[in-house]
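Ticket #4471: structure output looks truncated?

Reporter: J.K.
Steps to reproduce: submitted the chain below (733 residues) through the standard prediction queue, then opened the result file.
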Amino acid sequence: VGSGGLADNSVCSLFTATIRLTDEGFERVDEVISLFFQYAEMMRRTGPQEWSWRENRALRKIEFRFKEEEGAAEYTEMLAMTMRKHSREDCLAGDYLYDDYDPSEISTVLDSIVPSKCLYIVSNSEFDAEQPGVERERWFNVPLVRTSVDAAKIASWETADPDPALTYPPRNVFIAESFDIKGGSKSRAGGADVPAPLVVPPEIVHECGVMRLWHRLDDRFDQPRVNAYFHVTLPAIDATPEAYVSADMLTLCVHDRLQDTVRYPAELASLNAGLDVVGQHTMLSLTFDGFSDKLPNLVKAYFEAVADFEVTDSRFEKIKEKRLKDFKNYGLKPGRQARSLLHQLMKDREDSELVKMAALEKVTPASLREFVHGIWSAASHVEGLIVGNVTADEALAMGAVIRGTLRGGKVEPDDFPTRRCTVVPPGDARFAIPTQNPEEGTNVVYCYYQHGPSTHELRAIGLLAQQLMSEKCFDQLRTKEQLGYVASAALEILYEICGFRVMVESAFHSPAHVEERINAFLESFPRTVEDMTDEEFVKTRRSLVDSVLTMDVSLTAEADRHWTHVTNQKYQYYRGQIVASMIDKITKEEVVEWLKANVVPTAPNARRVTIFVHGKNHPLGDDGSNPGAMGPEDVKGLKQQWGLHPKQGDPATVPELEAPPEDVCRLTNTDVADILRRREAASAAAKGGADGAPKKMNQWAQRMADRSAFCAAGCPCLKPGSGGPFKMPRLNK
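Returned output as attached by the reporter:
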């Protein structure tokens, strides 16, 4: 249930500007407001700019012309909103297409953006709700103080001359100009009238010591879009909190540096870029999507910004200030606090937000510059996936640009960092912590069961258990027993280690009572499945199979699915079809036995971690529950005691492609014969070349031996050494 139409309707529109402030900005909020009105005054004095209007018209026209499919509910809601503003024939295009340039209308709007016609809302997390004159908002009881703005202050805002630094942004160089479809459905075998296969794996188009590049030319969606994803493995990132937060600051500083000249204009042109630290702080993730014409320029800008990293001392301090607040606020929601503690326990390379805050306090601009230069100059490896309206040659050109930004040599097979998870032993490891916010009344009980390394069989039965349990868990614990607003049960896979979790958030019942009810539900659930009719069980199972075999609705959905199989380093592109076939053969009796052995709390071999987060309504220790429960200080020792699962996947080797069963191939239009032909061709080629030497080939890269020629003399893969390991500089308190 939602509502809307207040800010933009047939009667009026509200013009809203939101400005997020640093601590210094909050102290100088009047100056910030003045600068906003100075910009509006600059626009009035210079008058409407036709080039800017035409640029915006082009952007909206492109967005409308190539609008991707969306959910039926969201689409219907959008239509209901626009039908009130536009005539019937314009309700689809009315919010997108601009017809005539009318500078007088723009001037009329600008004339309304003046201090005397504005409502000002200033929010502060340290607002004193007990001060005199505080009112309470009627619906959510939010405290506020209502005051009039001093007339002299409004007059100073209205008469201020625009600062000379306030100007229009430059013309947007990221707006797409070419929309030619380079593949499309007509290029598909058999033409556009032949149903597309459910899955067409990407192919390796380049592999050398520093890069493996996957590519697939779109033959389904007929959109001039590209999704390009890259992971840069950097073994030189130490397993220390200082290295974790320095890598994090690297990503934030690059975003900040590119914000005005690259990121903002690119987003206006429907080009998106992401830069994060992933893989338990072992690699950088750079993700890009948008129209294919200018996306390579965005990729180039980001990789060059990392390679030529620079940050001013003043910007560093602002970014650091915000990041410290992010760390401090991360655990304010109790559910997130519970998941954070679980991840600290499960991941080999992870620390708490408090530890990261302490480490970040010691980072300086100089130490960050030294860190970035050190990790980028050491050995590295890029694995990328480029899917969409881009040819193999264009993908190769993009890969060459990326390799040109690398400064170190290749990563040796044994030097790839591992992403391992803790082995949970049989029993129940119990943790109890208070909420980070002392005023938070919500409690959380988080029950996590670990099952082991992900196999097709384990994933299949785990997904079916989730399908059977999730709705009934919500119905029993949330609807019938009214334990709290959140009650969920789901498969939880962390770095290819399968688990299952049940979580309940409650402000009304103690954690001890909530756990008791969760355990009762889990104990009784095998019987619930046993009591299902065969018809009901088969219907539920079939629904899950259909869900797993659903076609991708967008290019991004397809790219994300392929990327999952690249990033887990198993490259099982047909895994969904294989698992679907297994799900369809699982019996009710098998599910019951699996539940009894793995999820029932009293099962002797069940491996469980239970995390209690106590809010102020049920303080830790008040009800006498959880005697001997552990806390965050016990995590490190427990991880050492339990040990780690073997690494899952291998970044140095791509295994043979596992084909789906023939019954699923028929359902999904998959040509299994083509898979076998590729494999046989690779085997034949691997017997030897003209010189009798064996060739390094498989079905992924039948031209692998030729691809080394793609690397120019300056490619980092041809460097004799890796440049040596990099160690974090010593950081003083």
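Triage note (M.O.): checked the attachment and the full token line is present. Residues 688-697, 721-733 have pLDDT under 50 and may be disordered.
Status: closed, working as intended.
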